Amino acid sequence: MSDIFTPKRIGQLEVKNRLMRSATAERLVDKDGVVTDDLLAYYKTLAKGGVGTIVTGYTAVDPQGRSGWQMMAIYSDNYIKGLQGLTNIVHQYDTKIIVQLNHCGRYSAGALIGTNPLAVSASHEEIKGEFPPREATESQIKDVIRAFVVSAERAREAGFDGVQIHAAHGYLVSQFLSPRTNKRTDQWGGGIENRSRFLMEIIKQTRQKLGADFPIWIKTNCEDFIDGGLTLSDSINVIKYLIENKAEPDAIEISGGVTFDTVIRKDVLSPEKEAYFLPQAETFRRTYPNIPLILVGGIRSYEIMEKVVGEKKMDLVAMSRPFIRDPNFPLSLQKTCRGVRTDAPTTCISCNLCLGMKKEPVRCRASENPITKISATRS
Ligand SMILES: Cc1cc2nc3c(=O)[nH]c(=O)nc-3n(C[C@H](O)[C@H](O)[C@H](O)COP(=O)(O)O)c2cc1C
User: How far apart are CA 368 and CA 304, in angstroms?
Assistant: First the structure.
């Protein structure tokens, strides 16, 4: 019996299989971040395609935390109705849907938000241009924490099965965690406990507001893979601090890196290159045997998926690019139970051409199969 097609309890949630669509900003919202018909059609296709859990693309909790025009938004009650459309469609197929909550911090687009982006610390040599980041004051930090909490309330109202706090990839929460970007000397900076305080407060206050039943997941970096960034031992200690402060997440998705070439690695074309954060994830598993863990990053073949959930004891395997290539692949995989890689037309070749689409909806350019077109033909 295949492990990946068995149901699993992840904290309060029962998911029908071990496959998850990792957060992917599809750029299928309108310029105000509102869900469009194309996004609804794509989520219908994904859910029909057999995936157990979908995490939405990153979704702005604060208008000042947007990276571009096509970032989904949840920072006002006006967004709830559109988001309800998404959860309704996905739930028709017994698929769970989690919204990823994010503030881009220093990567927020100054030209869009009309001011200097809010960041954990002021300007950094890597951020150039007209709008250098500015250091958040104590009261601005508290406002952003509140924005996450209120957004989680809206998420529940919109019917999401939970929220995932984006604490990875160099956005605001990750900026707080990293000693490379967090240069503060107050209670929000310095040692790993102070650097984790922002994430801890978001989880703790969300739980206080929404109760223990509402799932709060995080996506975190196992390492930043950059000089002076978060190390594996740091990221293990972040979780320790969360647990000690009664802010244990209900599931942890393990990612890594703060640059495209480390987060979204190219040319994953052999089993040895797959599951590229697995060694670090095994340390998480040994240290935290009872927390549900989800692994993302270069998972491609059926054999590796089975190994990751079977032998390596991860609870779910998460993928992004394979779902851009073929949102239907779980059903095909279930039918054949053969390696995805041997199923040549549907295999993501990690060429990363999907990342080069600046303003257009994300699509697989290797197959030249726009996701909007796929949606239209399959709905
Ligand atoms: C087009 C695209 C958009 C992405 N958007 C997000 C996002 O909104 N939030 C996030 O946490 N990760 C995002 N990612 C990263 C993926 O979730 C995932 O961590 C990464 O692509 C590695 O997994 P993969 O090898 O299965 O693609 C995105 C990746 C791609 C290719």
Answer: 27
Alpha helices in the chain (DSSP H): 37-48, 80-91, 110-113, 138-157, 172-177, 192-210, 232-244, 260-263, 278-287, 302-309, 321-325, 329-336, 371-378
State the pTM of this model: 0.95
3-state secondary structure of 135: strand
Residue nearest to atom 3 of ligand 1 (CA): 24
Among the listed residues 222, 225, 218, the one whose alpha carbon sits nearest the alpha carbon of residue 236: 222
CATH superfamily of 8-378: Aldolase class I (3.20.20.70)
DSSP character for 230?
-
Ligand 1 neighbourhood includes 24 CB (under 6 angstroms): yes
Neighbours of 151 (CB within 10 A): 25
Q: How far is CA 317 from CA 22, 91, 123, 223, in A?
A: 9, 20, 37, 19
- Note whether 181 and 196 are within 8 A (CB): no
Angle at 67 between CA 62 and CA 276, to 5 degrees: 110
Pairing of strands 8-10, 13-15: antiparallel
Tokens for 111, please give them: 């030209």
Residue 68's pLDDT is: 83
What is the SS3 assignment for 245? coil
Between 333 and 248, the more confident residue is 248
Catalytic site residue from 75, 79, 107, 171: 171
Q: What is the pLDDT of residue 357?
A: 66
Q: Please give the share of the chain, as a percent, with pLDDT higher than 70.
A: 92
Q: What gap in Å lies between CA 279 and CA 298, rounded to an integer?
A: 13
Q: Where are the domains of the chain?
A: 8-378
Residue 353: CB within 6 Å of ligand 1? no
Helix ranges (DSSP H) in 251-370:
260-263, 278-287, 302-309, 321-325, 329-336
263 Cα–ligand 1 center, Å: 8
CB-ligand 1 contact for 23 (6 Å cutoff): yes
Q: How many CB atoms within 10 Å of residue 193?
A: 15
